[in-house]
Amino acid sequence: MTPLLEQFLSEARDFLEGIGEKLMQLEDAPGDAELMTALFRMVHTLKGNSGLFDFPEMTRVLHAGEDLMDAVRHEQVEYSQDLADRLLDAMDFVGMLCDEVEAKGSIGAHHAADSARLAESLRRLIASVDAAAAVVAVVASALPNALTETGIVVAEADLPPLVDIPESIRMDAYRQACGGVDLHWLDYTPAADCFFQGDDPFFQARGTPGFLWGSITVRQPWPALAELDAYRCVLEFHLLTTAPREQLDEYYRYVPDQVRMIPVTPLFLALPQGNRNGGPVAYENFVDKALGLLGANQLEDLVLAASNLIELSSLELWLSSALRWLLLVMELEPENRNAFAKIIESLRRQSPPKWTELLPKVTGGNPPAKTELHLSQHSLTPEEAEVMTKMLDVQREILNLPIQENWQLGRIKAVAATLTGCLMASGDVAARAGLEAATAMALEEAASLPLLAWLDQFQQTRSTASVESLVNQADVGVPVPRNLSEIQSDLSADAVRVSDVDAEAKFGRRAEDAGIGPKSLKVDQQKIDRLMNLIGEMVVSKNALPYLAGRAEDVFGVRDLSREIKAQYTVINRIAEEMQDAIMQVRMMPVSFVFQRFPRLVRDTSRKLGKEVNLVLVGEDTEADKNVIEALGDPLVHIVRNSLDHGFEQPDERRAVGKPVAGTLTIRASQESDRVVIEIQDDGKGIDPDIVKRKAYQKGIIDEATLERISDQDAINLIFAAGLSTVDVISDLSGRGVGMDVVRTAVEKVNGAISLESEIGKGTRIRLSLPLSMAVTHVMLIESAGQTFGIPMDSVLETVRVPCASISSIKQSLVTVLRGNIVPLKSINALLAIAAPPQANSDHELAVLVVRCGNEAVGLLVDDFRETVDIILKPMTGVLADIPVYAGSALMGDGSVLMVLNIKELLP
Amino acid sequence: MSLEFKKNQVHFKDMVGVEDAEELLEWLQKTPAAKVDFSACTHLHPANLQVLMAASPSIMVWPADAAFSAWLQSALDQHEDPY
What we know:
The complex is a heterodimer of chains A (908) and B (83). In chain A, the strands form 5 sheets. In chain A, strands 14-18-19-17-16-15 form a 6-stranded mixed β-sheet. In chain A, strands 6-8-9-11-10 form a 5-stranded mixed β-sheet. In chain A, 46% of the residues lie in helices and 16% in strands. In chain A, helix 3 packs parallel to helix 5. Chain A contains 31 helices and 22 strands. Chain B has a single domain (3-76), classed as Transcription Regulator spoIIAA, CATH 3.30.750. Chain B has helices spanning 20-30, 46-55, 66-76, and strands spanning 3-6, 9-16, 35-44, 58-61. In chain B, strands 1-2-3-4 form a 4-stranded mixed β-sheet, covered by helices on one side. Chain B is globular and about 30 Å long. Chain A binds chain B through residues 190, 195, 200-203, 205-206, 211, 213-218, 222-223, 225-226, 228, 230-231, 233-235, 273-276, 318, and chain B through 18, 21-22, 24-25, 28-29, 43-51, 53-55, 67-68, 70-71, 74-75, 82-83.
């Protein structure tokens, strides 16, 4: 997972939470324009962010949400409870996608359909103010078709025109389906402007996985050629495929709203085709005979009879087609008696078998019903039985409605359809005859009474009979509007079946099951700081244990206890160090947080200056403590601006000296042991030490003598001195003489060091070295004149004991030779104005602590070395703050105060 | 060139792209009894297909690829279902 994606996920969660919160607030104050704007902005940002990744499902929903909020913001759509619900649903969906991305790194294509549905549900609210009414209509019209889930369709008219497919292909498909393959009918209606988006829907359709058969139709009659717009797509593609649903979703994931997938029940393919006229006269007899054979379970004879009849008939006949299907079905589904009977009966009428009547049950989307078209008795779960009871109650209420002439017939039909559906679902075939009779009577009289009577009777038997004789309904809840008045207005007879957008598909993450939270936390920095301070104290107090051990041995003379304390100390020490490390890790941030502002800064600044500069960033993922990273920001900006302003030449100047016209500014971050090193390098004109020297002299920063003998490197370093600017004109970018001096101060404040190298004509390199973390300082303890001092370990080079004889004096200074190098020696007592000579040990050796001071090594004469410790360095405060010799103080484990020396200030 | 026009015949070759649709449309507008040869065609952009569907020229040769041919026939074949 890329850092960008990680950040997106973490932000997305915040946004989702924020959106939820805002929506809640809006419920209390629906008119609050400010809240609305904030909400819009959140959805907008989230959408924009999601667009960075290949998550079409997520972006689609968010886009719809954004459009909706925009409409609300502009008061085109009113805020409503329903709107909030849908938006929350959509956000739940997005949250779920986020979870999936986090878990798997991508979004499964099977969400495309949900995504399209949610997006449509949101957009529908924008469509018009009537939207609300339409929604009720959707729910209501879903009722008669309650048993049809998105895919499987009961009404004949809604069946895909499978008969268009040639018989051989259908038979092949049927065979495959019986072999366990899922069949799907696909309607692909590309957007009218898809050609302009570079789409080739034909190519897309041709490449559909599991492709069996396809056809192309047109949405509207063709206009005259002269008026034809070749680039407005009006085609529709229809396909039959054997690919599993997930694969199809994946394949069409960018256009889920343009694709309708219908699982095909294999038996539905058994549609005889052919010339209905002619054929052997024997076929009338065949039907009776065949049914007889079927009844008597003489299937082999039935096969024989059918085969014989086929031989007698011409191949093109409808009759022989039906017989071929009969044989095929008998071969592949030998158990499915009902299917055989259907085909045989269809022979009598020469009309296709009505497979829908056999439809056994609703399947929950995919996979489609396999071949089990048996009308065996299933049991309803208690919930399903309850739903059915509710449905029946609603039907009763509908029937009891006052008669409205225009609607009455439609109402009766709708109720009859629902009841039929219920019967089919419950497998209660016996009752269907009664229902049909009642329906016919009701239609004839245009009155609800016959149906009501039937319903009464049915419910009576139902309540007495055990509910177990009902079908195993699908797990998708059937939408049952509770409020009848909602239905009343919309239950017009011709309310079209609409696949229900709203009544289903909640996306898991309701308030109660938000069990698995996001994996990253946002924590107030103060809390981390507190933790940091605590671990600091822990480190200090853990350091008290060795003292305790020492006291146990020395004062109380219990050597064993002392050893045990020491053993315990190592354990605590280890844990404390790990804890400290862990907390450090929490505070670590990549330098990219500072670096990310540079591309823009460099671009804008260089453009303003008329220079061409390429920025190269290296090592952006180097990490350091948050405070260090933050402290780095401003100095870096200064340095980069300086580089751009003074460092790089104008393009023509560069061309004249044979450099590439575009300069290169490299910012490189890396880690060196416990420090972060940042180098800013340009290939500009470099710094001329002479100019710096002269400026410094003019400004009175150096005197004449210094001007004469100062080295080039030192001269260049003068630019860090306060008040120096080499440019005469003050621009809005730099030249005020505060730049590099401020940089140095800022860097040193976080214990950093800055160095600069420059070569005229070649460029300048500035190197910042900063500690990874500022919290704990590693110091070495030394003793001198009976006092203990701390020296930061990063300035300690080595500790040596030098025999007094090896120390010689040059003029008034002491020196010694270490491995062939002359090292000047200073007595720490003298430096601190303590009137005591350095003490040698019994071997007449002096303890020399060699420290780094700038680029030189200096030996400090001390009385003795002690151990190194981790301390929390507290800067000096109050009057002591003015004594620069001390870097700060720290509390030791035994309760004493340790003064930590600042080597740079200590050495003149 | 994926389209080759010869008198009242047009030959589709290889992949016929979206940009050819315009030319095809113009040609069909001025060629009333147009005939189409798909024998060397492997794919055509649906914009071309739309033009052909609207103009309904007679198809002389269907593509060699059976599946592709079936697609095109579903769109362009003028024969009515005999039943």
